[in-house]
Amino acid sequence: MKNRTSQRIYEISLGTLIVGVDVAKEVHWARFVDYRGMEYGKALSFKNNRKGYESILAKILEISKDKTLRYPIESVVIGMEPTGHYWKALASYMKEAGYRVVGVDPYKTKQAKALDDNSQTKNDKKDAITIARLVKDGRYFDPYLPQEIYGELRVLSNGRVSAQKRSSAVKNTITAIIDEYFPEIYTVFKKPLKGKTSRQILRICPFPVYILEMDEADILAEIRKVVKRTVGMKKVLELKSTAKDSIGVGYGLDAARMRIKWLLDELELLERQVAEIEQAMEVILNKTGYADQILGIKGIGIVTAASFLGEVGDPLRFQNAKQIANYAGYNLTEDSSGKSKSGTIISKRGRKQLRSILYQMAFTMVGANAEMKELYRHLTTRKNNPLKKKQALVVISKKIITVIHSLLKKQETYKPELVLGAVRKEMLKAS
């Protein structure tokens, strides 16, 4: 069967027990149905701990051993919404117990729950039976929990993203304080948070009143603690002169000074953490066996390669590149009715972080990779249906997926002359 939904329905046999689970932080609800959606017994609530997990296993075993069933239970499928992080522990436990775990799109649950009672009322028991019946109808997918080195890469990648987001927030907070108390500092240091000298000034004398209180020699001595050369008395005198004419506010100076110091401490800690994460990513990337092939593609670096594998897992678990693109949410959708047609857009029903990583790859490669740069130029300047810049980057992202999957599948190294292909080369010549 070519239709995936039909194939999934086919996998639900007469002897299949379907378990729908509504996952929460502390207490989960489970409902049990047969291949028709008819419910077995009552709903089960169980806690998010080992005893609770054992109780749902016991319930599954009890139903499986029921001699009064018309069709003996031969297989068990457990469905849940793989959103957030609460589902992961339960899914892992059930997989280790030997059961198949499938995912149901939360949007489908929301739309389908009104079918039973014509009400969109939400409660955990109701959602559980809705999930079970969606599985019965083949409206499920196989969620992916990365294992071993790919699991390590995903955790590291997520940790790096989290640290960078927090780092950006800290920088924005420091910038806001500077703008309020000493906006003229940007005439002395274009990027106060980037250089060692400017960071030292922000630690010791961040505002005009403190700068003017210190002697030039003392300020230079503080700078020399972090940089031995490049900065001299000329920069100190410029800082002093700028401080004299500052229009920054003059209230809460001591408190703001302490706050900047704390924020700088936090920023430097986050930067050390990111550096440690990136070192670990490089080590684990080399263990995948794919490092040389992926890094051989000009424009892809260690961090983006490791992050890509952390999101995708082993790329060869997918039959083709299109499946990876769909996994990222790059499959195209169209909203049409009668004579009314809208343009196609990407569905975004996939891993948001994977799309972000691919976008970073594409953005870098159109500048560093000659083949991708040429393709990008063609897409944005062609006579028929030229793409906008972001649209072109999406196409480049999908091309990157194709190149990576092809190299790994064929066990080949990157060859620039083969990237675009004969047909595409002719198109580029004509444009």
Distinctive features:
5-stranded mixed beta sheet; 19 helices; 58% helix; 431 residues; Nucleotidyltransferase, domain 5; 3 domains; two-stranded antiparallel ribbon; 9 strands; Helix Hairpins; alpha/beta; globular
Classify the beta-strand content into a percent band.
Answer: 5-15%
* Main structural class: alpha/beta
Q: What is the percent of helical residues?
A: 55-70%
Rg result:
29 Å
Number of strands: 9
Shape: globular
Q: Could you tell me the mean pLDDT? A: 91
Tell me what the structure shows.
With 431 residues, the protein is of the alpha/beta class. It is 58% helix and 8% strand. The chain folds into 3 domains: 4-145, Nucleotidyltransferase, domain 5 (2-Layer Sandwich), CATH 3.30.420; 151-280, Orthogonal Bundle (Helix Hairpins); 290-430, no CATH class. It has helices at 4-11, 50-64, 86-96, 106-112, 114-117, 124-136, 148-181, 196-204, 208-213, 216-224, 233-244, 253-287, 291-295, 302-312, 321-328, 352-368, 370-381, 389-410, 421-430; strands at 16-22, 27-33, 44-47, 75-80, 100-103, 332-333, 336-337, 340-341, 345-346. It has a 5-stranded mixed sheet. The longest helix is centred in the middle third of the chain and has 35 residues, at 253-287. It is globular, with a radius of gyration of 29 Å. The relative contact order is 0.07.
